[in-house]
What does this fold into?
Amino acid sequence: MALREQWAETAMGVVVLALAAGFLTYSLSVGGVHMKRGDYEIKAKFGEAGSLAPGAAVSVAGVKVGTVSEITLEPKTFLAVAKLSIDPTVKLPSDSTAKITSDGILGGAHVSIAPGAAMDDLKPGGQIENTQGAVDLFGLIGSVIRPQGGSDAAAPSTGAAAAPAPAASQPAVSY
It folds into this structure.
């Protein structure tokens, strides 16, 4: 009886290790962090990377054509440099535009490429010159809710002459 229990435990251990190896292989292939054999890399520089991270999708017309392999900061210009790993079957025109777009209000970000009309293609190691960085949605919402500056802030306050009193027929409105 004891020998049969040992074999059962050993078999169960082998099954657990096989499942763990399967999950690891699946997560690495779906995650897309590693370049596939044959992919080529191009660069794009952005003023604001937002929540873009390695492994994020790179798409053309909504179709995934690659992944973001690395994001670094260029020390001289303080621009975010994204290395994009692109499928070799996709030839991007040299005047293409790269834009960081969000996956949703609370989601991550991905790079969307709009192909240009140039006759020559981006070469491996090339760079997309036309880029648009990420938009800070919460900053935009905050600026609408709480505007900073404006015509009221620029007007000098010189006492009673600064703002005329509301007419008697019009109710005073406060914002």
About this structure: Residues 159-163 have pLDDT under 50 and may be disordered. The radius of gyration is 28 Å. The CA atoms of residues 19 and 172 lie 71 Å apart.
